[in-house]
Amino acid sequence: MSTARLTCLLGGIGLIVGAFLPWANARGEFLLFQRSETVYGHQGDGVITGGLGLLIVVICLLHTGTAHRSYSLLISVVALVAGAVILMDMAHIASEIKRQSNSFVTATMGAGLYVTLISAVLACVGGIIPVKPMVVVQIPGATTDTLVAPAGQAETRDKQLRRQITRQVTELVVWGIVVLAIAIVICVGSYMLVSTYPQLFQSR
Fold first, then answer.
1. pTM metric for this prediction
2. How far apart are CA 198 and CA 122, in angstroms?
3. Which parts of the chain fold into alpha helices (H)?
């Protein structure tokens, strides 16, 4: 898996995860009474950024890229849209925090905003990274077979075998992260759905 593809994939997963993290936290205190409230991304525009992240993940799983060209300008555009959405939300939340914060109420931005913003930047950068070509390099007088290697490099069979093993392990780890992220999204989404609309799941 190329560096560009892996970067975009991690960015897409980050956008999905960020949609289920807190985007704003508020805590109020008055005499002996205390109350705290957390707003999660999926309760607002996190639905948009999470959906865009899912789109990026799907593109990464289906698209391998073309040598000598940017991996996917479409992913960069999608990530820019997600970045614009999160920046507008951050500005809006910041103004609300400034307006509502006082001696009784303390409000802060949640970690989900920063995770979403960083993931959008990651996916955007990954989309414009050129895909490194793979060519067959012949070494005159070489005693061992040369195999497919990145342009400008020549590797023996042993070195290429180690590279293939490393690549396969990396892909297994990435796929494991993808499956885990999807499972987390399903579990968290189901929990939020049950918590938000308990009447839909009550036996009649």
1. 0.65
2. 37
3. 3-18, 46-62, 73-100, 111-128, 157-196
Please name which of 129, 109, 133 lies closest in space to residue 23, comparing C-alpha atoms. Answer: 109
Residue pointed to by tokens 């400008």: 152
Cβ contacts of residue 68 below 8 Å, gap of 6+? 130, 131, 133
Domains of the chain (ranges plus CATH)? Answer: 1-132 (1.20.140), 134-204 (no CATH)
DSSP class of residue 27?
E
d(CA 170, CA 134): 18
pLDDT in tens, 130-189: 887 755 444 454 444 444 445 444 456 677 777 777 777 776 666 666 666 666 656 655
Higher local confidence (pLDDT), 187 or 54? 54
Q: Tell me the sheet residues that pair with 150.
A: 134
- What is each CA distance from 9 to 32, 72, 116, 132, 154, in whole angstroms? 48, 12, 14, 17, 29
- Average pLDDT over every residue of 43-65: 90
Buried b (16+ CB within 10 A) or exposed e, 111-127: ebbebbbbbbbbbbebb
**pLDDT at position 161, please?**
75
DSSP string, 54-75: HHHHHHHHH----BTSBS-HHH
Q: Strand pairing partners for 36?
A: 27
| Cβ(77)–Cβ(128) below 8 Å | no
